[in-house]
Amino acid sequence: MKKFLLLILLLSSFLTQAEPLRLSYLGEANIFYSKPYIYLLEKTHYRTIKVPELTISEPIYFKFSDSTFYKKFTPSSFTINRIDKKIFITLNLGGLVYEIRGNELVRIDHSFEHKMQINAQQFVYDNRIFRFGGYGFWSARNFFTYFDINSKEWESYSPVQGDKVPPGMFDVNQYINGDEITYFNGIIINPFDNLKFERSQEIWQFNLTTKTWENKGKTTLFFGNNPQNFQYENYYIAFNDERRIVRVNFKNYTYEIFENEAVSSKISPQLKPFVENGYIYYFANNHANGDIELVSLPIDQFLGKSILKESFIERDFWKEYSPYVLGLLAILIVSSGIYLFLKYRPSKARFIKDKDGVLYLGNAAINFDENELKVLRFLLKFDDVPNSELLGLIEQKGVHFSHNIRMKNDVLNQLNLKLKAILQVDMNFIIFKKSDTDSRLKVYRLNKQYFKVSEEFLQD
């Protein structure tokens, strides 16, 4: 008979130590914590230890009606779950679910031992027992199943929303934060060789409410799913191959490495450590006498000296900054296009100029008849032109005065229309007003802001 010694080391403010509690059991034990009890499941019985009092209950021995099941029953092959003060154990290979009712192990599922979710992760959510991933028959799972306590059936948690799903994984680390659950540093199967296992450092987060996956990137540090790895608050504690303690902070995605080999080398895998009120509880191997001790000490003392702090997520600079780079590039391309267009587009002429006695807008000559050109030149030369002087420019001898007046008005109207059309400006170029010197006289004035003509043109 193998002896199982629980030495309770209570490091309180007075540094007192409790008397050791001695337990004897046959075979392997399964040890599980669910506040406020540590459950000790052995082949023939189970008992509890209350935390933080560390009071141990009397053993409750199982009544086995099936001798075949008794012979095959190995507590360490099951995972313990607590839902609404009821204790359930699920077979790690998949399928079988038992409820501990008093001194009986009662099978409640309608499934079978399918061996399709070996080394899957398990957790309780919404009063259901969930499993994710797992290995079986040369393939790995990338979906969730759950056991419904009411229907006594295993169901698939589907459908998954969105277009992102992780590869099948097993032996993967699991961090839970409310409705979000994160998987990282697991094992996947080579897509071209299903006999080849590979490490995956991808971080996948699943929202149990929206049923959507999000790829958070890759870890900068790989560590396996050690049985001693555990979660507390927003931290995940792991143990690497160098017996160092790794603490991942999931608030800011950083990790620290602590050096405390005196502790990390003694942790027993039989109880996943847990933290309550700033104290960590774990089983430690006493290499001197072969006993196992239940130890409690402040979490800071457990961690020891911090020797490194780094980012836990590998930064993909292109993925992180590509939207900004592409946006800036688009702005530069558009800006360059606008600049080149403005620089090399045919410039629109804005001024009427003269050359060899002909008026031009840009390179296009403007066709004015003789009378229009005489009136325009005169209006360009002088500011205010009396009506009589304009009339004298175009009047015809021997015709009635009213006819000459109509001719003058027609010339002025034609000039106005031509200048508007040529310059594409909605304004009257020739205005009719009272003289500034004699209000009895009417004068004409030309808006000269669109003209740049030479003195030679005006003197013709």
Give a written overview of the molecule:
The chain crosses the membrane at residues 321-342. Residues 1-18 form the signal peptide. Keywords: Membrane, Signal, Transmembrane, Transmembrane helix. InterPro entries: Kelch-typ_b-propeller. The chain has 460 residues and is an alpha+beta fold. 20% of the residues lie in helices and 40% in strands. It is built from eight helices and 40 strands. Strands 4, 5, 6, 7 and 8 form a five-stranded antiparallel β-sheet that branches. Strands 19-20-23-24-33 form a five-stranded antiparallel β-sheet, with no helix packed on it. A hairpin with a 6-residue loop joins β30 (279-285) and β31. α5 (370-381) packs across α7. The longest helix has 28 residues, at 317-344. The protein starts with a strand and ends with a helix. The model is unreliable at 1-27 (pLDDT under 50).
Question: What is the topological layout?
Answer:
Layout: E1 2-6, E2 9-10, E3 21-25, E4 30-34, E5 37-41, E6 45-50, E7 55-56, E8 60-61, H1 67-72, E9 78-83, E10 86-91, E11 97-101, E12 104-107, E13 121-125, E14 128-132, E15 135-136, E16 139-140, E17 144-148, E18 153-156, E19 173-177, E20 180-184, E21 186-190, E22 193-200, E23 202-207, E24 212-219, E25 230-232, E26 235-239, E27 245-249, E28 254-259, H2 261-264, E29 274-276, E30 279-285, E31 292-298, H3 299-303, E32 305-311, E33 313-314, H4 317-344, E34 352-355, E35 358-361, E36 364-365, H5 370-381, E37 385-386, H6 387-394, H7 401-423, E38 430-434, E39 442-446, E40 451-452, H8 455-459
Parallel strand pairs: 2-31, 34-40
Antiparallel strand pairs: 1-3, 4-5, 5-6, 6-7, 6-8, 9-10, 10-11, 11-12, 13-14, 14-17, 15-16, 17-18, 19-20, 20-23, 21-22, 23-24, 24-33, 25-26, 26-27, 27-28, 28-32, 29-30, 30-31, 34-35, 35-36, 37-39, 38-39
Helix pairs in contact: 5-7
InterPro entries: Kelch-typ_b-propeller
Signal peptide: 1-18
Protein name: DUF4350 domain-containing protein
